[in-house]
Write a structure and sequence with these properties.
mainly alpha; rod-shaped
Amino acid sequence: MTRLLTAHRALREGLVRPGVRARLRLWTSEPERGDVPGWVLVTVMTAGLVAALWLVAEPLLTDLFASSVSGVTGQ
């Protein structure tokens, strides 16, 4: 954060060469990119939870579906 404030101050006061000034403007004006690693972690953890629940629930759901279909068809 201190480097960023120093870069802004140097640009404002004209203390840098023109080539460096252009690079500093690009560096200081870059928009915030967000919390990408956080969203990746949330996505991976959600996929893991879904996979774990699917392993537990699959036999139960299969039996429930089979009994429902056999109850409707009368077999």
